[in-house]
């Protein structure tokens, strides 16, 4: 069976006062998918989201939901299909959290806005799904920003939308709630076929949760595809025009810039025993050398980001005499050598590493 595209934009151009900001946006997703917009501050992610929900009029192009043009839909029809969690403040004076959530039912109530028993049960269920049932009677104004984000998610869910749109939904959440929040979205998407369109600044999370990613850059969607297609080596550095530090697309790790200069310490690293120490030396502003590392070792990414010199061996190749000699040369030039105890044990089995540890001992430099 052919899977239907549920959400699609065709030649969508968005901007302000008739001036295009992002042109010719062509993105799409099927039911049950999560599509995330990433890109630098001010790139235009919020502008795209606001244009999709018709809070702003697109300069040209079409947004399709379930094959229908959204600009031909009645407001109420659109509100039943699509719900929104934007960062803009909603007016919530003297409202309990349950009241705020209940405003999500407005597309289903009559013109007097009276909620039926069924509406209230959807409200309560949404609060349970998001894990905020205990705050029902709490004054919305008196909860934290992170708690408000979760209330607004429950409000959007109780609208029972086909497409949920969220602008930086995890920005105020602590690490536990970031994961919980995104897990709820993922569960809803996979179990109920909900489509999710959101912007995220947390690239590591975007890479893990998204089925599709659109990269907003300058006046265009620079890349649109699966995380595997987007997070290729060096791309994030270019997208964000990073001039300091390093982003590792595979792990989502960020490293600061290396302290340049003649290395003072040689770190015998491997199996992840070196990374924390590299970061410590970087904080102390001490230039260092690292080795002998296989280029697929856990420590290699941080070593190549933070050290002045890395003595390395290509993946799955033998450590050769030339690598040992190079490491010894740097050990002679450094005033100290560090090797974690855990690595000293393992290194007994690895000829090259054993050689340089013994050499450092003989030189009186091993810590
Ligand atoms: N009302 C407005 N009128 C004119 N320009 C605007 C307006 N609102 C935003 N902009 C501009 O549009 C550009 C895109 O802003 P937008 O908020 O969409 O970016 P964003 O990618 O969501 O950024 P961030 O990651 O910082 O939240 C910015 O240069 C911003 O200054």
UniProtKB/TrEMBL annotation:
Q: Which GO terms describe its cellular component?
A: plasma membrane
Q: Provide the topology term for how it sits in the membrane.
A: Peripheral membrane protein
The biological process GO terms on file are: iron ion transport
Keywords in UniProt for this one? ATP-binding, Cell membrane, Ion transport, Iron, Iron transport, Membrane, Nucleotide-binding, Transport
Q: What is any Pfam family matched here?
A: ABC_tran
Q: Name one GO molecular function term.
A: ATP binding
User: How is this protein named in the record?
Assistant: ABC transporter ATP-binding protein
